[in-house]
From TrEMBL:
NCBIfam families: BPSL0067_fam. InterPro entries: Dae2/Tae2-like (IPR047746). This is BPSL0067 family protein. It comes from Pseudoduganella aquatica.
Length: 129
């Protein structure tokens, strides 16, 4: 079972709305709170988002990077989670947040062929189950 965005899209633009107990606006908190996803230790890697035929993954689906064992990473190669909006020119369109920005925003994660960190290329994102 994948996890889907719960609130209306216009409701997620509130700064700090998806903060954790420490007040941090991390990407995982957004996905957990907005999509009802459980702890990252239970996440499993499913469909590769970039390789999926456009339209087969519903807009609002929770996605993340995973390690070679199909689990949410704990290594130094990068980890991130976001909400999939659709395929765009050269990558995937997502909603995400991070501490420095402090709010949810839309952006494109491009398919960078030579990316060394998972977060830097759309090819490393999979549907969370």
């Amino acid at each position: 079972m994948s996890y889907q965005l719960n609130p209306a899209l216009d409701a997620i633009q509130d700064p700090g709305k998806f903060a954790n107990a420490a007040g941090n606006t991390e990407w995982v908190e957004f996905v957990r709170q907005a999509c009802g996803a459980p702890r990252t230790s239970t996440w499993r890697k499913r469909v590769n988002v970039l390789l999926a035929t456009p339209g087969t993954i519903p807009s609002g689906t929770a996605i993340a990077t995973f390690d070679d064992n199909g689990k949410y990473p704990t290594d130094t190669k990068g980890k991130h989670a976001a909400v999939y909006l659709g395929h765009g020119p050269g990558g995937i369109r997502v909603l995400d947040q991070w501490n420095r920005k402090g709010r949810v925003s839309e952006r494109t994660i491009f398919n960078k062929k030579l990316a060394t960190h998972r977060v830097d290329s759309a090819k490393f994102y999979f549907v969370i189950e």
